[in-house]
Amino acid sequence: MNVMVEGQGSGAAQAGEVLAARVTAHRDYTIAKIDDRIYSGFLEHLGRAIYSGIYEPGHPTADAQGFRGDVAEVVKALQMPFVRYPGGNFVSSYNWEDGIGPREDRPTRLDLAWHTSESNEIGIHEFMDWCEIVDTKPMLALNLGSRGLDEARNFVEYVNGPTGAYWGDLRKKNGRAEPWNCRLWCLGNEMDGPWQIGQKTAHEYGRLSGEVAKALRAFDKSLELVVCGSSNPKMPTYPEWERIVLEHTYESVDYLSLHMYSQNKAKNTAEYLALSETLDRYIGTIQSVINVVKANKRSKHDVAICFDEWNVWYHSHEQDKAILQGMEGWPKAPRLLEDIYNFEDVLQVGLTLNTFIRRADVVKIACIAQIVNVIAPIMTEPGGPVWRQTTYWPFLLTSLYGRGTALRLAVASPTYDTETAGEVPYLDIAGVQDDAGRTITFFAVNRHPDRAITTAVSLEGFAAAKVVDHQVMTHPDLRAVNTMEQPDLIAPKPGTGAAVEGGILHLTLPPYSWQMIRVGV
């Protein structure tokens, strides 16, 4: 059997060849402490995310408030530190006051973002209760599209203000005396997008968000505020949008929000799996913009990146057109954005999470969009079961074991050429040392369609090591999916062959595979 050594291009590979890669992990070469909040989620009033997603009165598992217990259990297992709510595009024409008070008095509104009807059965009180059920914290978004400073200030005071003042007393009247003390607030959503209700120029939005931030700081200086960056790296205003907005807001905000969704409409897997390189460059560019604004302002303040929308999103585009174009009236909680994820998407999600780990020095929050039914790792059937999509598994295992300090790995891998990102390594790998210093976890993706990669990971500066867990995801059919009838078709399986000898971790990555290897040290 021939071995193709690292550094050679893929064009030289012959039948039967095995690719080889080398990785060095050193105890003292680190990137940053990983913020646990990169494993956060997103829940929008969109499609069936709320209604028949997390909330379905009458379901066999529903609690007294109507929340599905089976869904809560599967969500809770992901250990998401925060969940962003209530949008998304939805928030830019949302009146938060519609979701408080007796349910029978709440109005039904027409949602312009998704051309549906919103009953407001779920509002801020109910969402906060659900957060407690699934053991997460709220990251709340403010409407800076159709509304402005006063409405934003009022919402924050309603959520966090004391009793003895108007908004705190109203909250108490509605059943909650104690403030919720929500720390994370988003100043609008995708305000650069022409699809957004209340779209603004960078100067308009920068000025408004700066004034809102000032008002919220006057209420509570300890709040963490997220200002909108570009909706994606293809926006014509990117990255000048970020510079202008930060010129208005730099000293008043803590995070700059970025969004990106991955697509493979052309069914070109090689290019699709190169999109994580685009993501990495997107983050790097915006990190540079942040540094320029900081330098220009002679500031000692740091602004980090909040990547509060990311995922794969394209499978459902065609089926959604009728509703989004208004051809079906104003339905309530229709099946919208219900991407059914395949095995190929497992690799993409793994690559995205690896990128966030390697960018732990600047990416401090990330929210997979979304959690249930809507471009989500979890699916439900009304009155029926809940099941985990293929992409649930890499998110779960990375959330559980990708916490600690990101290691700065030296990687030598064969590459292939792409239009998307130039030369891309077949091996993508991230390494994390847990806070106790007892375990190193590696998350690895093989991008090659038909070549395994034998990988030698040199563990330098670590004590004697042994493999304590090895999970592999691979499948001969990239289009294979999990369904309600076959919910476990694609799931992690125990790996074989990984071992540490003489301070070197030896493992083999099958073609098109994702795997997690945990090494006790």
Please sum up the structure shown.
The chain is α/β, with parallel strands linked by helices and 521 residues long. The chain is 24% helix and 26% strand. The protein has 11 helices and 27 strands.
Radius of gyration: 23 Å
The total beta strand count reads 27
Question: Within the largest sheet, what's the order of strands?
Answer: 4-5-8-9-10-11-12-13
Low confidence ranges: 1-15
- Main sheet characteristics: 8 strands, parallel, barrel
Helix content range of the residues, please? 10-25%
Overall 3D shape: globular
Architecture blueprint of SSEs:
Blueprint: E1 3-4, E2 18-26, E3 30-33, E4 40-42, H1 69-76, E5 82-85, E6 109-111, E7 116-118, H2 124-134, E8 137-142, H3 149-160, H4 166-173, E9 184-187, H5 202-219, E10 224-228, H6 240-249, E11 255-262, H7 269-272, H8 275-296, E12 304-312, H9 317-324, H10 343-358, E13 363-369, E14 378-380, E15 386-388, H11 392-401, E16 405-407, E17 410-412, E18 415-418, E19 422-425, E20 427-433, E21 439-446, E22 453-460, E23 466-474, E24 493-494, E25 499-501, E26 504-509, E27 513-520
Parallel strand pairs: 1-2, 2-22, 4-5, 4-13, 5-8, 8-9, 9-10, 10-11, 11-12, 12-13
Antiparallel strand pairs: 2-17, 3-16, 6-7, 14-15, 16-20, 18-19, 20-21, 21-27, 22-26, 23-24, 23-27, 25-26
Task: Describe the 3D structure.
With 521 residues, the protein is of the alpha/beta class. Helix content is 24%, strand content 26%. It is built from eleven helices and 27 strands. The strands form six sheets. The protein has an eight-stranded parallel β-barrel with strand order 4-5-8-9-10-11-12-13, surrounded by six helices. It has a seven-stranded antiparallel beta sheet with strand order 3-16-20-21-27-23-24, with helices on one face. Strand 6 (109-111) and strand 7 form a beta hairpin. It is globular. 49% of the residues are buried. Mean pLDDT is 96; it is low at 1-15.
